[in-house]
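Hello forum,

I keep getting stuck at the same step: I have a sequence, I want structure tokens, and every attempt I make locally crashes halfway through. Rather than fight my setup again tonight, could one of you with a working pipeline run this one for me? It's a single chain of 390 residues.
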Amino acid sequence: MRLSPRLTNLNGGGSDGWEVFYRARQMIAAGQSVIELTIGEHDVRTDPSILGAMDASARGGHTGYASVPGIPALRDAVAARVSAQSGVPTTRDNVLITPGGQAALFMTHHAACAEGARALFIDPYYATYPGTIRSVGAVPVPVAARAENGFLPRPEVIDAAAEGASSLLINSPNNPTGAVYDRATMEGIAAVCRDRDLWLISDEVYDTQVWEGAHLSPRALPGMSERVLVVGSMSKSHAMTGSRIGWIVGPAEAISNLIALSTVTTYGVPGFIQDAALFALGAGLEEQIAAPFRRRRALAREILGRQNTVGLIPSGGAMYLMLDIRATGMNGLAFAFALLEEEGIAVMPGESFGRAAAGHIRVAMTIEDKAFGAALERLCAYTARRAQAA
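Reply #2:
Ran it on my machine without issues. Output:
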């Protein structure tokens, strides 16, 4: 029996970008010591108070089918959060609760893209973006943002690729680069979307992790609220990665149709997880969760400032650093494998996130401060040795 080409072509005939991560996990399983700086998994787990709310809800009986769009109280809480942040009036009719941000990305592209539609996204990108676009039958079209511009996308470059496109996917604060799109960049993107009649899918899962500047949702810009679909999540803001709970915020008509899609796919999110998310949104934990990454970013800037081999791309947000290792003469993939095998330090190669990140590596700031600093010191020393030998 043949499998659907849509399934077998999810990775476009190439890799999924996770080879170094898989190798690191194999080494750990074999008993080898590896320092993991790969994925965006907090080094602290979900706060006990959130787990307590989850447990109380489950034991209280909220274990059956929950409302498919999301329980009203949680939709109201998300709407209030978004209204306060963006200044755009938002109600529960603008909110759909989803099983995490990844499901939201899948659903928003279903909403924006017909079969065979061209769907733009910014390169470097989170590794699942192209496969997500292919999974809805659309054609992924990367638009390069360059290191020399701080990985901020240029509106004229987006516009040049936009002929015949249906959507544009952006992510600010950005994974993998840490770039926070400033107002001028966001206004330029919005202008292209209005001129080209594009849906703008805005992945804002890192909106609580901003170290410089301010988070600006394009939904707040003139003429954009009816063409923006915002993807949000509790994973990064509240260390609830395994709970799989997120949302889509958008025009009421789009949300109504997305509820129909949810009905025939996920059939909602467990009620006890929704109750825990509702508690978490009111608990004021965002800064507590973000604080370690703020500290480690400052530590990294200090360490990297004492050498001149590894280049640090300015990071305005999120839990990652993008490092330039081109002085070694190696690409990111070769460097990451060598660093893993020779130093036992696992990082993600830039090439996992697109061509625009070639010659770079992504470092997740997700281990304890002292260990993180020591790992960076070793990484810099290793890079210097490689550069001298090049």
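Residues 64-281 form a domain with the Aspartate Aminotransferase; domain 2 fold (CATH 3.40.640.10). If your local run keeps crashing, start a new thread with the error log.
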